[in-house]
Write a structure and sequence with these properties.
66% helix
């Protein structure tokens, strides 16, 4: 149950970050360029650094802040995000399979048929 709650909290935090990015950079650009894996991987690393760099009493300002003010700060911070740092790796088109000559496929013959033919060949001289 604890793991589910943690996953739920992380997914909501990621949704808030992505919403701020979409507001600043546009929904199409974030969807095309932003790799969800790279974004999700960058958040804990950055958050750990922020917790070390900013003293705990200064975080109290954010806790007391209203939702609209906090959203305005997120949008302002999203303007400084470099989307190309979290971009998807482009997929290349698949190569067509080599066109080699395949031997003609013969139909399936059951084991019972093979045994009957072999038995018939052994009986007749």
């Amino acid at each position: 149950m604890c793991g589910f709650c943690l996953a739920l909290g992380v997914s909501k935090g990621l949704a808030v970050v992505l919403a701020a990015w979409r507001r600043v950079h546009g929904e199409e650009r974030v969807e095309e360029e932003g790799a969800l894996y790279a974004i999700a991987n960058a958040i804990p690393t950055t958050a750990h650094g922020l917790l070390l760099a900013i003293p705990e009493p200064e975080w109290d300002v954010l806790y007391a802040m209203r939702t609209a003010a906090c959203a305005a700060i997120l949008v302002a911070r999203a303007q400084g995000v470099r989307l190309h740092a979290c971009r998807k790796s482009p997929r290349r088109p698949k190569k067509p399979p080599p066109q080699g000559k395949k031997p003609a496929r013969q139909g399936h013959v059951s084991t019972a048929t093979l045994l009957m033919n072999r038995k018939a060949n052994l009986i007749t001289p």
